[in-house]
Design a protein that fits this description.
The chain is α/β, with parallel strands linked by helices and 259 residues long. It folds into two domains: 2-221, Rossmann fold; 222-259. The protein is built from seven helices and 15 strands. The strands form three sheets. A six-stranded mixed sheet has the order 7-8-9-3-10-11, sandwiched between helices. A five-stranded antiparallel sheet has the order 2-1-4-5-6, covered by helices on one side. It has a four-stranded antiparallel sheet with strand order 14-13-12-15. A hairpin with a 2-residue loop joins strand 4 (51-56) and strand 5. The longest helix has 18 residues, at 164-181. The radius of gyration is 19 Å and the shape is globular.
Length: 259
Amino acid sequence: MRVMARHRLGDFMLDVAFEGPEDGVTMLVGPSGAGKSATLAIVAGLSRPDSGVVAIGDRVLTDTAARLFVPPERRRIGIVHQEARLFPHLSVERNLRYGLVRARDRARRIEPDAVIDVLAIRHLLARRPRDLSGGERQRVALGRAMLSQPDLLLLDEPVSALDPVRRAEVLGFVADLKRRFALPMLYVTHSADEARLLGDHLVRIEQGRVTGQGSVTAMLPVREITGEVVAPGVVRIGDATMPVAGLDAPVGATVRLGW
């Protein structure tokens, strides 16, 4: 994934350039108003930059010098927002099938059963969105985006509206999607902890400009924290809980994590 864009939004100038891994998660990290969501809009094709290039692998989606602009519906990009934005009148199953409808002209690489199982939502298929928790709605939104057979998944602060328990739950499922499908993702967050948990490459944006980028381990200093195992693979740290892949400790144990 390659992004270079200059774009004026009123008094705000966005001027960013970065590259991300083809099968990993690129984290866009920075304060509110830094330009993270504006960058996502340009990648998604919802906004045309004044100048720039957006490419996924060898597939160029925007090239202003060549007057090339692929419309959003043809970009093969899935998007998950802060709110799930599910169709309230449709069941979970029909919301998921909408993703397949969007992908009707694409080769099916991601099968519904695989997504349903990874996200653990099979028991929810007959329900309506109003009958779901916030975390369950976000899991369905993730599933719908995945079933559109995207070449890239955009996540715009997908857990920021959730309480700590639901946030940890959904982050665990995003990590599972990453491991299972090796799909490139561009993930917007304020949270260094989310970046450490999910990211492969980190791009720091401040006041519309990239102020640093590199591996997550290089960009974020390691710190040690102590927590209590409250469920298999889940640790409570203060008032928050978080999934820890590969954790082999009994419930109730105190563990020390490098973070």
